[in-house]
Design goal:
Largest sheet: 5 strands, parallel
Number of domains: 1
Order of helices and strands: EHEHHHHHEHEEH
Shape: globular
Strand content: 5-15%
Radius of gyration: 15 Å
Number of helices: 8
Helix content: 40-55%
CATH architecture: 3-Layer(aba) Sandwich
Structural class: alpha/beta
CATH class: Alpha Beta
Number of strands: 5
Length: about 170
């Protein structure tokens, strides 16, 4: 089974990925981490602002629209190029933000589960850096309580998928 975690910045996708990794042994990789060298190479704005891809990645939250456009370029013409790379490395794609990329992956992978991670207490991103919405995903995972609450919820939800598969 392959899982794509979608949602706004700082809504809990990375935490969800870490829980899936520690509890179920699923290997997760964030899109920005996997693509950092390519994003940096494709972005004169990032090259002007940072001395290397590592620094650009560390400050990616400040430059979301630039990262979004660069990842779109990586996924041209094949919209699931980055997903192919991520899924060669592991089971969980942490941080997809483009609706066309998501649709392409839904068509490409038969064993795919798409998850929208949502925290109502954290501001949503602008559409210039995230075109996916909750309705585009198979399930919505609410992250509105404490960290232990979120961990229990993830374990409860995913135990059903891990037993029967998708």
């Amino acid at each position: 089974m392959k899982i794509i975690l979608c949602g706004h910045s700082r809504h809990g996708k990375g935490e969800c990925a870490a829980i899936l990794e520690s509890y179920y042994g699923l290997r997760s990789h964030s899109s920005s981490w996997v693509a950092k060298e390519q994003v940096y190479a494709l972005s004169p704005e990032l090259q002007a602002k940072y001395s290397n891809a590592w620094d650009a990645h560390k400050n990616r939250h400040e430059d979301r629209p630039i990262w979004y456009k660069a990842i779109q370029a990586i996924n041209t013409p094949c919209k699931h190029t980055l997903a192919d790379i991520v899924f060669e490395l592991g089971d969980v794609y942490d941080g997809m933000r483009d609706r066309e990329e998501l649709r392409s992956c839904v068509n490409e992978y038969a064993d795919l589960l798409t998850v929208w991670v949502f925290n109502p207490t954290v501001k949503a991103e602008e559409s210039s850096s995230n075109s996916i919405r909750a309705a585009d995903c198979d399930i919505v995972l609410m992250n509105a309580g404490t960290l232990p609450d979120f961990q229990r919820k993830i374990k409860r939800v995913f135990c059903n998928f891990m037993v029967v598969g998708v």
